[in-house]
Amino acid sequence: MEKTNGYKRAPSRFRNVIEEGGRFPPEIGMCFCSSDAFAWLKPGPALPQDRYHLYVSYACPWASRTLIMRKLKGLDFIGVTIVSPRIGPDGWPFATLDDYPGAEPDPLYNSRLVKDLYLRADPEYVGKYTVPLLWDKKQHTIVNNESADIVRMFNYAFNSYLPAHKAALDYYPPELRGEIDSLEAWMYDDINSAHAPPASRTEALTLIRGSVTDGVYKVGFATTFSQYRDALLPLFDALDRIEKMLSGKVYLVGNRLTEADIRLYVTMVSRTAFYLVRVSALTRGPFGMSDRWLRRLYWKHDAFQSTTDFQHIKTGYYSLKTMRTASPFVPIGPVPHIEPL
Ligand SMILES: N[C@@H](CCC(=O)N[C@@H](CS)C(=O)NCC(=O)O)C(=O)O
């Protein structure tokens, strides 16, 4: 795998979609769950069966996005399993191997590691054993392991089986797609502020996503001072640009909650919990606008608050042996993790 500045993510390998008529349909059947989420159901319901399952770590920002979208859309019929945040040399362990508070065993195969699921899906698989992982219980295989795809699928794939008010929620609305799409380049491009100044708001958003998300990792994984410095300055530039962009606004794109907010939130919330200390990205704040934006998302939307677990986030990053600064324990605080509004 190519490495740039000590950090480069591998492309995801499983990229199937859930779609009618496809290999992975949003299958229709009876639902036997007793969850309140199904209180709207009348007798004789047609619902997607409990066919798909999501494996995630609260410590992974990419996985957390899928949890937020699942919650926003009310996709309770997609089961979730939380792994231990203490990633080891073989990747993410389930509670059977590492019984960390809040971690769960694999309910489907009692796997010890996420790795076992990858090898179950493809015994020849070579690569990282990443989360999120969307699993098909019927074909016993991975549907998709790319958070950007999963978030998109959750936004629309099950719409015809959802109550009207949930189906109507669109976090990737046609009129804002251009702008939102431009944010997604960061997923695969190694963008940083060595680029020319952005020519447009759209371009600025693209740069910002790359700079903040991967930029934070570049800072954290840098092994020399010059790598660290080269990554740190673009990161602060990006945070400054976000500040300006959010000035007088509640959401990043348009006047509504979109995918863009979800994507940025998971990075920014991790930042509050550990980045500033762990990756030596000492703040030059205040970042008033982005702090307020973050606090609004956290306090006003259960989908954000209920999927944010600070203990797992901190434990995940402070346990990472590959990060530069060794840490014998997980620090307390900040208290509160997110300031009230
Ligand atoms: N392309 C993936 C990347 C996900 C990813 O990098 N996950 C990390 C945790 S944040 C992971 O599971 N890493 C496992 C490992 O490094 O062994 C996505 O966005 O879904």
Automatic annotation (TrEMBL):
Tell me which residues bind glutathione: 92, 128-131, 146-147
Domain of life the protein comes from: Eukaryota
Q: Which intervals hold domain GST C-terminal?
A: 173-329
Q: Which GO terms describe its cellular component?
A: cytoplasm
- Tell me the classification of the organism that encodes this protein: Eukaryota, Fungi, Dikarya, Basidiomycota, Agaricomycotina
* Name of the molecule in the record: GST C-terminal domain-containing protein
| Site keyed Lowers pKa of active site Cys: positions | 275, 317
| Entry-linked InterPro entries | Glutathione-S-Trfase_C-like (IPR010987), Glutathione-S-Trfase_C_sf (IPR036282), Glutathione_S-Trfase_N (IPR004045), GST_Omega/GSH (IPR016639), Thioredoxin-like_sf (IPR036249)
- Which residues does the entry assign to the active site, renumbered to this chain? 60, 217
Q: Which GO terms describe its molecular function?
A: glutathione transferase activity
Q: Which Pfam families match?
A: GST_C_2 (PF13410), GST_N_2 (PF13409)
